[in-house]
Specification:
Elements: H1 3-15, H2 28-37, H3 43-53, H4 60-75, H5 81-99, H6 107-110, H7 118-129, H8 138-147, H9 155-165, H10 171-184, H11 203-208
Helix pairs in contact: 1-10, 2-5, 2-7, 4-5, 8-9, 8-10
């Protein structure tokens, strides 16, 4: 890890010592469902939806019994409800049929679940099972590129570069640091560069401060 990368990581760790997942869950299955719902939706909205949904439908069996149409009614406010319901039900069926009703605890097996992509698998692996993984959502993608920490045009490229420049044992923590920074300082529109304590290390700020 080079000095600039270490300084960025240390700076993020100082800013967000208590960084942790924002989604509410009580089991790996609940986390899996919540992460699927969180695509292009705020964690706050997801938590409100799952608070109601999980009261009676918090296992693969109960979710499949609910069915597509009824599930869509619960998750409508999360957006893209038709696709998300289909993904949740597909993953639930795989968990039952392939893994005896238990969410698999390896990254490779998680990625075999129908309806589960790389980001979802990484989050569940890291958060539910303590694995080493970096999930690249919109915040991680934006902040990594702006800082110059890991530049890439796709989430996959950014993930590959983050994994290459950061020690494996900090991948999960770095994921949460970058999310917090994206939410609180490095906003998509009008990032608060002037007040950002990392601006001297930031490639984006270095390129734009004179404009």
């Amino acid at each position: 890890m080079d000095k600039n990368t270490k300084d960025i990581l240390d700076g993020l760790a100082f800013l967000y010592p208590d960084a942790q997942p924002a989604l509410h869950f009580k089991s790996p299955y609940e986390l899996l469902v919540a992460v699927i719902l969180s695509a292009q939706c705020t964690d706050e909205r997801v938590n409100k939806v799952t608070e109601v949904l999980f009261r009676e439908h918090n296992t693969p069996e109960k979710m499949l019994a609910l069915g597509q149409e009824e599930l869509e009614k619960y998750i409508y406010s999360c957006g893209f409800y038709h696709n998300k319901a289909a993904h949740i039900l597909s993953a639930s069926a795989d968990i039952l049929n392939k893994f005896g009703g238990e969410v698999p605890n390896t990254l490779e097996q998680l990625k075999t679940l129908a309806g589960v992509g790389q980001k979802t698998a990484n989050v569940v692996y890291a958060v539910a099972f303590g694995g080493d993984a970096i999930a690249v959502d919109t915040h991680v993608f934006r902040v990594s590129n702006r800082l110059g920490l890991a530049e890439g045009k796709t989430p996959q490229k950014v993930e590959e570069k983050l994994c290459a420049v950061l020690p494996k044992n900090v991948w999960s923590k770095a994921h949460h640091y970058l999310i917090y920074h994206g939410r609180r300082v490095c906003h998509s529109q009008r990032p608060d560069c002037i007040n950002c304590t990392l601006n001297k290390l930031c490639k984006f700020y270095g390129n734009t401060k004179g404009n």
